[in-house]
Design brief:
The chain is α+β, with helices and mostly antiparallel strands. It has one domain: 2-Layer Sandwich (Beta-Lactamase), CATH 3.30.450.150. It is built from four helices and four strands; from the N terminus they run H-E-E-H-H-E-E-H. 45% of the residues are buried.
């Protein structure tokens, strides 16, 4: 018998539900996305590349998810702090490379605890953020 899952552990089924919700949103937009989900430790849990999505967006989506989890904030918010003259200028060069533009969003359980993050890449940063947010909402349904 499998050990009970911690409420802070993101299960594979949950990660796949996040990807499915994000994919549905991307299809509504008419965009092709790479979608990455990391667990609370920022380890890759699930990944999907929609047919014909950009190859270059694979790495970006994974780094967006990791960046959001490393700093517990959406990547777009971190980007505002990383502008020239801002307190975190050049942070994107730390941790093996970070992404400091929108498309990475935290995943929280129904109790509000952080269980991971989703990163999406393949279109405009606005579209990426919208798709990532749709994926994150799947855990709250």
């Amino acid at each position: 018998m499998a050990a009970p899952q911690s409420s802070l552990e993101l299960t594979l089924d949950q990660a796949l539900a996040v990807i499915a919700a994000a994919r549905r949103k991307a299809e509504e937009q008419g965009t092709l996305m790479d979608i990455a989900v990391v667990d609370a430790g920022a380890n890759l849990k699930a990944f999907a590349r929609m047919d014909e999505a950009f190859l270059g967006s694979i790495d970006i989506s994974i780094k967006k998810a990791k960046t959001a989890r490393f700093f517990n904030m959406p990547t777009g918010d971190l980007g505002k702090l990383a502008q020239p003259g801002a307190p975190l200028f050049n942070i994107e060069f730390s941790n093996g490379g970070l992404i400091t533009f929108a498309g990475g969003v935290l995943l929280k359980n129904k109790a509000g605890a952080i269980v991971g993050a989703i990163g999406v890449s393949g279109s405009s940063v606005e579209d990426d953020h919208e798709v990532a947010t749709a994926g994150a909402q799947a855990l709250l349904a």
